[in-house]
Design a protein that fits this description.
Blueprint: E1 17-18, H1 45-51, E2 55-58, E3 61-64, E4 70-76, H2 83-92, E5 98-103, H3 109-114, E6 119-124, H4 130-143, E7 148-151, H5 163-171, E8 176-181, H6 190-207, E9 219-222, H7 223-228, H8 238-248, E10 253-258, H9 264-271, H10 275-287
Parallel strand pairs: 4-5, 4-7, 5-6, 8-10
Antiparallel strand pairs: 1-3, 2-3, 7-9, 8-9
Helix pairs in contact: 6-8, 6-10
């Protein structure tokens, strides 16, 4: 699917107002660093309002928190056995606006996603890669008028109960919130810890920004971030390329620990991601620097 031209969201945001319209001054304050790798940022007036439970910032405008649109985006490939349960759990957690992009699956992932009420299911007829599926889904979310997009994996390893924690930080004024997995041998295989730390190192080496978990798929993006981030790659290197874009556009970001549920199913998928594929990803990262 080619890159769609983003349309305006005036119709969806008719109740918004400029900061000056609601009499908010230009007061700023330094937000101290917090645990979990949070980065220090200067608070915007909209961020101050959000901490009071009043408003969310989107493109320099203030949107009442109750009216902001949160879209959960899931790229999926051969997930027919779990995708239905994953989507229903997200809806039960209070997030009914879900976009699934089936990236050319050989099974019935697309059909299973279509069967879940309220889910918008899109499909690539060929397997183009995670990055391509993410870009298709983000363009769809923008066309739907999303103020916040939360991305999650389709294999059930992420806890929908953590979505609110990521969204609340976007409401505070962050452009990108990165969910970070606890790299503990008690909960994560040793080889995966090594692979993730290697990914962090090469992401830092190429893009100059150190993050705790550069390969995590559990993230939240503000509308400003969605409009700013431009990526070129279509496969797993996409996750690291987003880190480059955070640095390039000086987006405000933070990190927050998230729960991860490793099951025999998700572990089996991870095991099929071979060393050869990892080297291919690294090569493409260097190629697109």
């Amino acid at each position: 699917m080619g890159r769609a031209k983003s349309t305006g969201t005036a119709g969806a945001l008719t109740r918004t107002a400029h900061l000056s319209d609601v009499g908010v001054s230009g007061y700023t304050s330094e937000n101290p660093s917090k645990t979990g790798g949070h980065r220090s940022v200067r608070s915007t007036p909209a961020a101050i309002l959000s901490r009071e439970g009043i408003a969310h910032e989107a493109g320099g405008r203030v949107i009442p928190l109750a009216k902001r649109k949160i879209v959960v985006l899931i790229p999926a490939y051969n997930e027919e056995s779990v995708i239905g349960d994953v989507l229903r759990q997200i809806r039960l957690a209070g997030y009914p606006d879900i976009v699934v992009v089936d990236d050319g699956s050989a099974d019935e992932t697309y059909q299973k996603a279509q069967q879940v009420e309220g889910v918008i299911a899109l499909r690539h007829f060929l397997n183009r890669g995670k990055g391509a599926a993410m870009k298709t889904g983000i363009e769809a979310a923008k066309l739907l008028g999303a103020d916040v997009v939360v991305t999650m994996d389709g294999d059930g390893q992420h806890d929908p109960g953590d979505i609110g924690r990521l969204v609340s930080l976007v409401d505070e004024g962050y452009d990108v919130v990165l969910g970070t997995r606890v790299m503990d041998r008690a909960t994560m295989p040793s080889w995966k810890i090594v692979a993730n730390k290697s990914g962090n190192f090469f992401t830092w080496l190429l893009y100059g920004l150190w993050v705790t978990d550069s390969q995590s798929g559990f993230r939240a993006f503000s509308r400003r971030a969605l409009e700013s981030i431009e990526t070129r790659t279509d496969r797993y290197e996409y996750d690291s390329e987003v880190i480059r874009e955070i640095s390039r556009h000086r987006l405000r970001f933070t990190e927050v620990p998230v729960a991860v549920h490793y099951t025999p199913y998700s572990q089996g998928k991870a095991a099929r991601q071979s060393l050869k594929n990892g080297l291919k990803t690294l090569f493409r990262m260097f190629l697109n620097t």
